[in-house]
């Protein structure tokens, strides 16, 4: 769990801080008619640095497992404006000519650095490539292909499961090259301004790093993936003041997050009591099927606001994350 600081607007408005970290992975919510404590693997309060989140969340282990051939996923979930994109990428206003301060870099850039360092220290010969797509209004669009983002079909096969057809995968060898791909794709993502967030992501974005170790001698080659999922924020249209196209986008976002929540709820049940998991209910759950209930290793970073005004969304996110914590996979 990551608790962002109160914003200047919230402080000026006189919002109360209702979320408090108790240490040892416990977070306490205290407000009128609400008094609850939740337990997680780790809780990062408003003072936690980007580096502390990287080291304390298990992200470094995830990178190492991906190099070892596992399918690894990290996704950021939470209300719009709760700090998901900042946690994954760092400040919004960064580009190739205006890089962010090293202390503010998010989980993605730190993972790329760690991946390349691990590759060099192990002396392993890795082939690295990246693909980047967004799901906008239930359409899948490639963020790396030249020209305007084109819609791609989602297919299913017995060997690969769900996959995106004709998705561009770009090879890279240096940190500069992969960060350039990240920024290039992020600038093409759909964002809009509304009452809760000036740079609200209007799509779910999935950046996948494909890691193939070239075999030495008789050793079999390993293929791992490291997938970063920046989910669009759950939002109440009344709170954001959205109308027209923004309102349609919000409904599409909320529908896919509801489908994701439904799959997580069913996966959290003991194996003997599970019924059919409805991955086909949305494009998002189809693409995350392997990460959620298959053979992958998944980290979920739930971002919340400490403001009293966001209490209901904060509680909703904490319950959602508690269910996700009970899901077990078999990597």
Automatic annotation (TrEMBL):
Domain of life according to the entry: Eukaryota
InterPro entries named among the record's database cross-references: Kinesin-like_fam, Kinesin_motor_CS, Kinesin_motor_dom, Kinesin_motor_dom_sf, P-loop_NTPase
Residue ranges of every copy of the Kinesin motor domain listed in the record: 1-327
Chain sites annotated for binding ATP: 78-85
Chief location: cytoplasm
Pfam families for this protein: Kinesin
Family membership noted in the UniProt record: Belongs to the TRAFAC class myosin-kinesin ATPase superfamily. Kinesin family.
PANTHER family: CHROMOSOME-ASSOCIATED KINESIN KIF4A-RELATED, KINESIN-LIKE PROTEIN
Protein name in UniProt: Kinesin-like protein
Organism lineage string: Eukaryota, Metazoa, Chordata, Craniata, Vertebrata
Gene that encodes it: Kif12
